[in-house]
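Quick bug: Ankyrin repeat and death domain-containing protein 1A isoform X5 output formatted oddly.
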Amino acid sequence: MGAGWGRPQNCAGVIPKGPDGGKGSGGAAAARASTLLRPNSAPSPLRSPGAAREDACWRPGSRAQRPQGLRSRGMEEQLPWETDCLLPLERQLHEAAHRNNTTRMKELIERRVNIRSRNHVGRVALHWAAGAGHEQAVRLLLEHGAAVDDEDVFGMNALLLSAWFGHLRILQILVNSGAKIHCENKDGLTLLHCAAQKGHVLMLAFIMEDLEDVALDHADKLGRTAFHRAAEHGQLDALDFLVGSGCDHSVKDKEGNTALHLAAGRGHLAVLQRLMDIRLDLEERNVEGLTALHVAAEGLHLNCVQLLLGAGSNVNALTQKEQSCLHYATLSGSEDMARALIHAGGCTNLADHQGASPIHLAVRHNFPALVQLLINAGSDLDATDNRQQTPLHLAAEHAWQDIAEILLVEGVNLNLRDKQGKTALAVAARSNHVSLVDMIIKADRFYRWEKAPRATRSMATGCCSSGCMVWPRRVKTPVKHSSRALWPSAERT
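Here's what came back:
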């Protein structure tokens, strides 16, 4: 066996790279395509593998925020050569195919390199040539026996890749070579889904007009049609084409999301406006009870929220968990979003399934500025949740001193007790939050001083010589009490 044909002992070992091989006759277009499609890259972005994980992590109405660091690992994202597990000459064939270097491809084919060799994700040379749009390379591979319907481990074949990347001529060649047009990948994406998601209108037109029996409203495994995909990914032209072709506007996916939910969740303002123009129901709810306004608020898409509010969306609509849009805005800590919702009539005192109003959530997640905004909008500071905790109880539990000071300055009932019978002072003392205990005690003295008749006010009750109380003020240096010494005063409160 020649030295060039030996398989490395360990795929993780160092494997010499194949030659560049030039760019062949593809010219500048081939050079651009080569940056998008490399044999040693990760799988196609066509739901493989990142997109499926992204849908699992995020959906309209899920409490999980859309992941910032996680994105679909597309073909443009390279992986080390050492992971492809190809023979050296097989790797060179893949490289030549993606660069449209037909001269090198012919040399390798003459040396009987396996034309259907697969890399670590099951991708063959035809996949790279089709995805990069190289007509000459595709024809050469087909002439020498490449299987037109070979799939990678994600169910992607050359036909689906050509639709995804918008290479209409490649798709036509593959169809004429006998490719199955009613194919789909392992997530159920068809040619129509691929073209719609990437916004390839000419590809959509060819699929609908020239291919037989293509189902316009075929759903993938998430229950989403091409119309959903175009809306979710902000492809306005593709959306218009599908609408003009007579697709079902009101269809829902398996989570009950309409195209309106998907566009609002991704912040696609132009698509959202178009969907409103065709009169999709603004109050349609998904299985979790979220409207498009909830989804836009959760995604922090302020422009979409303002558009929906202007169109008459119900700002106080509640989900299955009795959460309003203001709850979602509060969980994100967005003052601008909360301000817009309040200005549109959002109620600050609606309680969710756990009895928490927006101010409970703002306190729990330590958003002082948002707490002040909600107070200014009329939030009930003595409202209790299902644990009978007030916002001050939560501030004491988490030792949020800035928020506690805001609440105490506004004036709260210090005698309210939670389900364990503890006041906010007792909660702070139990956790040994000394500064907070001192602050609550001073506030209690001030409240008593305010209620006392003016004639009875004295220095003994906390009045200074000028007649005003030494409150509010920030306690910068904690008073040196032990936890044991704090308990008696806390328990009496």
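Actually, after a second look the formatting is fine. The radius of gyration is 32 Å. Closing.
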